[in-house]
Amino acid sequence: MPAGEGRVGHRLRGLAGSRVRRLRDSGLPVLQCALAAGLAYLVARDVVGHPVPFFAPIACVLVLGVGVTNRLRRSVELAVGVSVGVAVGDLIVVLIGPGWWQISVVVGLALLAALLFDVGALLLNQAAVSAVLVATLQPPGTTAAFSRWIDTLIGAAIGLATAATLPSHPLTRARRGLSALLTELEAVLAGTADALEVGDRAAAAAVLERARATQGRVDALSDAVDAGFEITTIAPLRRRHRGELARLRTAVRPVDLALRNARVLARRAHAAIRDGERPDPELVAVLRRLAGDTSVLRGELTGGESTDGARSALLDTIGTLPERGGGYSADVVLAQIQSMLVDLLTAAGTDREDAVAATTSRRLDGGETADRHDPDDPTDP
């Protein structure tokens, strides 16, 4: 199969996999959002007595719709934003009536009111949009005046209560995110070893492209861990998971550094093949060992187990490092392997200074390599 077709196939498989994961992760929150929206409408209509309480389900969906994939703080911002916007819109339109200049006044005052809360653009935009809806959907002097604000409060309250009382498991997204990252790292290492062994430049280029596509997942993992901590804060039954979340949070930064080093490693491996270097066979063997160590670390970290097995395996791998890589670029690959050993030991719970000390018998300790190289800098060959 041509290299181009292989890369397209990899992209399509990755896209399909990401969509399946998204549906799997969001199935329960979507169901919660749908049921809560119906409940908000029911409460506003049958309990409070508003005949057409359309703002109640709207506010509920806005709060929980964001909460499906993002953090609770943003849901709270939206709840405040829509409530402020509707309140300002109702009040101002009742006082000065509808019209083009009244819309300008409503939007300006809604934004100023939201600014008093010292929040981000999300709340500000929602406040302005809500104010415009109130000022244009129904004229003042009708039974809708201020009842829309009450409906908004009902919907927002039900949305936040649902998010607080029926939260997702705080570890699920964090474990899946970390597992996906370490799986990608393992694949990059194994793929680089295969490309170096046979001198396949196209395969090395495909591995490099794969390595460069991981940064978005790093950001998503960090967000998932923070969201997990928020869930343990608002849900007492989930607080027992804070220790495990703390361990995962500690692993995020070193795994990020390991992936950055992997990008440099993949680029230098591609350069080694391009320049006709003959890497030391021991270098290829070490890459495969490190891929296996990464798999062990993934299983232990995401399974909530002790990482003693991963630490032991990584320390054994340090002892197999060759003295030279077999060429200029291959030597850089060796340096990146040493850096990644430090990063992965740190992710496994080893103090970073101790991890660096474990490699001091080698030519490079690699402890800062990820900070010296920008893996996406086109001027770094």
TrEMBL record:
Residue intervals passing through the bilayer: 50-69, 76-97, 103-124
InterPro entries cross-referenced by the UniProt entry: Memb_transporter_dom
Keyword Ribosomal protein: no
Membrane protein topology class: Multi-pass membrane protein
Chain intervals for the UniProt region annotation (Disordered): 352-381
Residue ranges, compositional bias (Basic and acidic residues): 362-381
Domain of life: Bacteria
Signal peptide boundaries: none
Domain Integral membrane bound transporter: start-end pairs: 40-161
Keywords: Membrane, Transmembrane, Transmembrane helix
Subcellular location: Membrane
Protein name in UniProt: Aromatic acid exporter family protein
